[in-house]
Design goal:
The complex is a heterodimer of chains A (about 110) and B (about 120). Chain A has strands spanning about 5, 10-15, 20-25, 35-40, 45-50, 55, 60-65, 70-75, 85-90, 100-105. With about 110 residues, chain A is mainly β. In chain A, strand 4 and strand 5 (about 45-50) form a beta hairpin. Chain A is globular. The model of chain A has no long low-confidence stretch (mean pLDDT about 95). Chain B is globular and about 40 Å long. Chain B has strands at about 5, 10, 20-25, 35-40, 45-50, 55-60, 65-70, 75-80, 90-100, 105-110, 115. Chain B is mainly β and about 120 residues long. In chain B, the strands form two sheets. In chain B, strands 2, 4, 5, 6, 9, 10 and 11 form a seven-stranded mixed sheet that branches. A four-stranded antiparallel sheet of chain B has the order 1-3-8-7, with no helix packed on it. Classes of the chains: A mainly beta (about 110), B mainly beta (about 120). At the A-B interface, strand 4 and strand 5 of A face strand 4, strand 5, strand 9 and strand 10 of B.
């Protein structure tokens, strides 16, 4: 199985900050890397697919990069509604594993 | 508009069975990969199962042999039959549509069905 490792596990930041979350796959997955945002009590929401493609309706302050085994999610200027938990997921092969999550908190 | 609505969750004793349903609208279930993902209290997201357009099915090791994913094309509904339930299966269960054109991203999710396994 492909293991997905996110860092950091938690992060404190302020409104307006630039934030970067990283995700590493245990083997090459090409661009088969997706990012999701989840708020408490809500379903996950797709933000980025294929490593850097922005899902329709998602603000342009979210961006993704990387390929192979190393990926990043960047939020260019944090907004109050961005405080949530973020997950990466590989969709290269089953099991479609998720990272352990990054909890983004208000400083 | 794409919508997914789960039902069938509840409180069940260890060893019991439960069937979750996910009613879809705005698209055809049989034309997409469809998946189940769960979120246990205090833990991260865990992928559970997928059914491909051709009918092939795949499972996480943690549920293999106990859970069965299926679909009813006439009802445009996805199912998850869960047998021999354990305390560690307690979670919110989400169904998700998989955009299987190229990248297999989970682009639409239901609101979730809560399953609690406890005596």
């Amino acid at each position: 199985d492909i293991q997905m490792t996110q860092s950091p596990s938690s992060l404190s930041a302020s409104v307006g900050d630039r934030v970067t979350i990283t995700c590493r796959a245990s083997q090459s997955i090409g661009r088969y890397l997706n990012w999701y945002q989840q708020k408490p009590g809500k379903a996950p929401k797709l933000l980025i697919y294929a490593a850097y493609s922005l899902q329709s309706g998602v603000p342009s302050r979210f961006s993704g990069s990387g390929s192979g085994t190393d990926f990043t999610l960047t939020i260019s200027s944090l907004q109050p509604e961005d405080f949530a938990t973020y997950y990466c997921q590989q969709s290269f092969t089953t099991p479609y594993t998720f990272g352990q999550g990054t909890n983004l908190e208000i400083k | 508009e794409v919508q997914l609505v789960e039902s069938g969750g509840g409180l069940i004793q260890p060893g019991g069975s439960l069937r979750l349903a996910c009613a879809a609208s705005g698209f055809t279930v049989s034309s997409n990969y469809m998946s189940w993902v769960r979120h246990a209290p205090g833990k991260g997201l865990e992928w559970v199962s997928v059914i491909y357009t051709g009918g092939s099915t795949y499972y996480a090791d943690s549920v293999k042999g106990r859970f069965t994913i299926s679909r009813d094309n006439s009802k445009n509904t996805l199912f998850l039959q869960m047998n021999n339930l354990r305390a560690e299966d307690t979670a919110m269960y989400y169904c998700a549509r998989v955009d299987n054109i190229v990248w297999n991203q989970f682009d639409h999710w239901g609101q979730g069905a809560l399953v609690t396994v406890s005596s």
